[in-house]
Amino acid sequence: MPPRTDTPAPPTARVRRFSPAERWVHRTTAALMGVCVVTAAVLYIPQLAVMVGRRELVVRVHEWAGLALPVPVLLGLASRAFRTDLRFLNRFGPHDRLWLRAALRRDRRHSSRPAGKFNAGQKIYAAWIAGATPVMLGTGLMMWFTHLTPLVWRTSATFVHDWLALTIGVVLAGHIGMALGDPEARRGLRTGTVSRAWADREHPLWRP
Questions:
Q1: Four-residue CA torsion sign, 23, 26, 29, 31
Q2: Closest Cα to residue 184, out of 14, 29, 9, 22?
Q3: Which residue in 3, 4, 80, 171 has a CA-CA distance of 20 to 30 Å to 135?
Q4: pTM for this one?
Q5: What are phi and psi of 194, to 5 degrees?
């Protein structure tokens, strides 16, 4: 039997993490979410409202950006790679529980935080945003089309919309903070590839 000639890939090798369609979905969704957050801040913070002015225009931009928010994900479903990653995000295994326990203990050792393509924190974030988006859309539509629902519904929708928007802002700030602390993860979303060393260290159970 002839000897094997294949050798492990060097640590400097790069592996594909995201397809062009996945990067487009992320960028477009992030842009729309950013518009929603910024316009909401202008509408609810008096100092910003005075500085920007043109409240009616800001309201319309906020409404249409919110209405368009689910569109990139819906279009992304045409991509097989995107659908595959959605399945990864939707699966929570024993290694994810280990990751969460280590995170709660603030144990930063990579050996204590096993992860597949996505870690448990990313899965929880994705699930939370996926749940919050339709709630924001539904409550926003009730506030937009005031003649379609009774006053008590609109009042409740306003309460839910405003407080959920605040929590979304806090969660997004945490998400951006985590991204700023991981240049290679950002590079993966920008270029589609990451280093083999980073993949082996941060996502040891992932087999690209």
A1: negative
A2: 14
A3: 80
A4: 0.83
A5: -135, 165
